[in-house]
Amino acid sequence: MLEPAVAALLASDFDARRWRPGVAASPRQGVWVDGTFGRGGHSGALLAGLAPQARLVVFDKDPQAIAQAHALASRDPRVTVCHQGFGTLEATLAGLGIEQVDGVLLDVGVSSPQIDDAERGFSFMRDGPLDMRMDTTRGPTAAQWLATASESEIREVIKHHGEERYAFQIAKAIAARRAQQPLSRTHELAELVAGVVRTREKGQHPATRTFQAVRIHINRELAELADALAGALNRLAPGGRLAVISFHSLEDRLVKQFMAAAANPGAASARLPLRESERPQPVLRLLGKRFAEAQEVAENPRARSAVLRVAERTTTPLPAPAQAYLPAGSRSPNLQGTTA
Ligand SMILES: C[S@@+](CC[C@H](N)C(=O)[O-])C[C@H]1O[C@@H](n2cnc3c(N)ncnc32)[C@H](O)[C@@H]1O
Prior knowledge:
39% of the residues lie in helices and 14% in strands. By secondary structure, it is α/β, with parallel strands linked by helices.
């Protein structure tokens, strides 16, 4: 998803359905945002397509990713580094004195280095401390949350963020277990869930959904994504692009619904007797979606569930803050978690 995502931001005639590799655009001026620096693959490719006076603001929650971003910034003065969640995008840009941006890229979720490092606690395959924080400098760990949250909160998180039908049984087992001894290791949680979830989709570990749910909760992933989408739309210049790569259906549904509402705001009022001039006008134009190519999936099996969605800001002024285009409940307080 590297090449199409970068083309989605920089190529003036980008169309997700028709895009083919290898067409280089002329270097672009302007201000650009990579909300998920990671190891800097997308940022590096973006910088290659930007002019010497352009600016790239990069975000990540992860201190290791931020250390790499600082190393890049020391070599390339176009880069500004923000150790922040991308949910703060609008406020952070305002703090930098940036009113408008030309493109925002979000490649959401966890990175391969995070999953592969047992000490980060993201993987049920590798035993490690039950941490799961992208930002290891703040907020409660998964172990701390599982030790203190009510059984009903744990159940709701596993049910909604994991779409897990055994959420009731898993939460009950966690509560019974912690009354004896707190859960502190990934293998302890994985084994406990495996003991409760007896039927499972083919090829999937029984703890997959529980780990996904706890991770989403600990990192406030959906609330951050909702804030970032609205913040990006509030700050995009006319013609500016928003490109989001997501890895699971909860994220992709949020992105899809947000972009559709901003691209077709008249749908809600279609049956009302309004004059054409009174109907709400699109503030985004959809440029389509793409899945990873077979070759990319062969090289990196995690890419098989990746979806890239792209939209372009129109010239219509926003009639209200862009939060209005978020689906109802996308910032539901009982599922937002507690990390900042
Ligand atoms: C899939 S990786 C991105 C990889 C990156 N595009 C690259 O080319 O290396 C996701 C990264 O986003 C970061 N991340 C996820 N959610 C975040 C959030 N809400 N705010 C800031 N960074 C976030 C993670 O820490 C991780 O480093």
